[in-house]
């Protein structure tokens, strides 16, 4: 069954809370996350004495019953720290059911379609991004969005990543998943250098301090936006993020500037481990042999092999996170 959801947050790290909620929804049993709308910054509706919200919409396909699915999303709300609960008031996270295929319900616990579905721009505009033709009371979502009372409500694209898994990773590994020894790559393979260049050129690369220092002359990579995750580094030829919250804020701004750029993590070991939970794609170059590495690429059982190409004695493997094949329209 298809279910459309509305998600909102106006306390804490709003964007990351929404992405975490989406990741948890994508992991629910018998459920696939199929579409996620861009995130919007929205003025509070109802009680206006509260901070602005970030809102989005999502579509899942689930074999769970609507009530069972509702209980699961309520548990996710609790896990993400939703404590205070006043009607139409501030919240860390709110997950509302908007519409479920073939289901009408009018109990206290579950009202479907959602009673205010056609009243609120923060619900309708994200929904239009993923389901413009969905019929609500006989009218398409895109048509509802043209209503004057919807047009008057304050809502703007948010400078936020909307994809729950926004990152790619690229690495060259030996047979033991080793990536380096004593701060250096295990092998230098011209074909792999060419592949790395091709995959990263024009994109945004994210690395740790040690990886930056291991680049030729310790300089940033040309033709790419270089981001370094480091608590202490000070220099002005790269963008520096002190923690993940700063990284998400920076990537959100970069995505607004140029929506089609990829965010590619290029290492090293600690940064791969830190960022793997947010990756949807891994590009691994596999080298035959064992090179006594002291640094390794982390375990990644939640990924499956989507493509493989053998060239010049190397295997170029593309892995994809299971369940991360959702659609996310670009603005
Ligand atoms: N379509 C629905 N989606 C989510 N919760 C619903 C729905 N219909 C009824 N409920 C019930 O509403 C309660 C949650 O209400 P909540 O306080 O989140 O509403 P609200 O978000 O403040 O208001 P609104 O639903 O108008 O946005 C839960 O107990 C839930 O069982
Ligand atoms: N902009 C905006 N306003 C709201 C929201 C929300 O998600 N976005 N949720 C509310 C509780 O239902 C009340 N008001």
From TrEMBL:
Keyword Membrane tagged: no
GO MF annotation terms: 2-amino-4-hydroxy-6-hydroxymethyldihydropteridine diphosphokinase activity; ATP binding; dihydrofolate reductase activity; kinase activity
Residue ranges occupied by any DHFR domain in the UniProt entry: 166-331
EC number: 2.7.6.3
Keyword field contains Lipid metabolism: no
EC top class, as a word: transferase
Swiss-Prot/TrEMBL GO biological process terms: folic acid biosynthetic process; tetrahydrofolate biosynthetic process
Keywords, comma-separated and alphabetical: ATP-binding, Folate biosynthesis, Kinase, Nucleotide-binding, Transferase
Gene3D superfamilies linked: 7,8-Dihydro-6-hydroxymethylpterin-pyrophosphokinase HPPK, Dihydrofolate Reductase, subunit A
Organism listed in the record: Selenomonas ruminantium
Pathway involvement of the protein, from the record: Cofactor biosynthesis; tetrahydrofolate biosynthesis; 2-amino-4-hydroxy-6-hydroxymethyl-7,8-dihydropteridine diphosphate from 7,8-dihydroneopterin triphosphate: step 4/4
Protein name: 2-amino-4-hydroxy-6-hydroxymethyldihydropteridine diphosphokinase
Reaction(s) catalysed by this chain's protein: 6-hydroxymethyl-7,8-dihydropterin + ATP = (7,8-dihydropterin-6-yl)methyl diphosphate + AMP + H(+)
């Amino acid at each position: 069954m298809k279910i459309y959801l509305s998600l909102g947050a106006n306390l804490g790290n709003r964007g990351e809370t929404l992405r975490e909620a989406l990741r948890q929804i994508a992991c629910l049993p018998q459920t696939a996350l199929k579409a996620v709308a861009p995130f919007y910054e929205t003025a509070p509706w109802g009680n206006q004495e509260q901070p602005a919200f970030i809102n989005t919409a999502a579509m899942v396909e689930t074999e769970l019953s609507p009530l069972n699915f509702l209980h699961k999303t309520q548990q996710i709300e609790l896990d993400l720290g939703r404590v205070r609960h006043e009607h139409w008031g501030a919240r860390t996270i709110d997950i509302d059911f908007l519409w479920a295929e073939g289901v009408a319900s009018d109990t206290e616990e579950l009202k479907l379609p959602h009673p205010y579905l056609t009243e609120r721009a923060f619900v309708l505009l994200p929904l239009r991004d993923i389901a413009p033709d969905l019929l609500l009371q006989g009218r398409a979502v895109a048509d509802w969005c043209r209503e004057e009372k919807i047009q008057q409500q304050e809502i703007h694209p948010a400078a936020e990543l909307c994809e729950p898994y926004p990152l790619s990773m690229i690495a060259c590994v030996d047979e033991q998943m080793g990536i380096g020894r004593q701060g250096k790559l295990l092998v230098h393979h011209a074909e792999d250098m060419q592949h790395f260049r091709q995959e990263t050129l024009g994109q945004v690369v994210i690395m740790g301090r040690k990886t930056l220092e291991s680049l030729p002359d310790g300089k940033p990579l040309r033709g790419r936006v270089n981001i370094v995750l480091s608590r202490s580094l000070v220099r002005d030829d790269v963008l520096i993020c002190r923690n993940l919250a700063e990284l998400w804020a920076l990537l959100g701004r970069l995505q607004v500037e140029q929506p089609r750029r990829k965010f590619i993590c290029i290492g090293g070991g600690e940064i791969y481990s830190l960022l793997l939970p947010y990756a949807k794609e891994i590009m691994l170059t596999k080298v035959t042999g064992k090179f006594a590495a002291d640094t390794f690429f982390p375990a990644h059982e939640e990924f499956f092999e989507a493509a493989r190409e053998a060239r010049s004695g190397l295997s170029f493997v593309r892995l994809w996170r299971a369940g991360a094949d959702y659609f996310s329209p670009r603005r």
